[in-house]
TrEMBL record:
GO terms for molecular function: acyltransferase activity, transferring groups other than amino-acyl groups. The keyword Transferase applies. It comes from the Bacteria. Residues 18-53 form the N-acetyltransferase domain. Keywords: Transferase. Transmembrane segments: none annotated. Pfam families: Acetyltransf_1. The keyword Transferase applies. This is GNAT family N-acetyltransferase.
Length: 107
């Protein structure tokens, strides 16, 4: 989860995300980065797409409430009632290199 307050620093979260991905790919040897986001979170999805992520799978959700707590569970499409999905996004190292050629200094 990437969260930030409104700021005068343009593209701060983009640069933080790119630095994190560079470290994952170059420093840790990760081949593919993966994340999950609610499909109605357009602002986050826009950021992730700018970083190079693409949607890989849309998982239907069921919303339940227990003891005042809301819970979302991945279910069969016929049981979904949340009104939005859980979107799985992926970014392989090759696509990251194409999107950010100067970012990777090694590997």
């Amino acid at each position: 989860v990437i969260r930030g307050r409104a700021s005068d620093m343009r593209n701060l979260m983009f640069h933080c995300g790119r630095a994190l991905l560079e470290w994952m790919f170059s420093g840790l040897g990760v081949e593919t980065a993966e994340l999950h986001v609610f499909s109605h979170n357009e602002k986050a999805i826009g950021l992730y797409k700018r970083l190079g992520f693409a949607a890989a799978e849309s998982l239907p959700l069921r919303r339940t409430e227990e003891e005042g707590m809301v819970k979302y569970s991945v279910v069969d499409r016929s049981e979904a009632n949340a009104g939005f999905d859980y979107l799985r996004m992926e970014l392989p190292i090759g696509r990251f290199r194409q999107a950010h050629p100067a970012a990777l200094l090694t590997a």
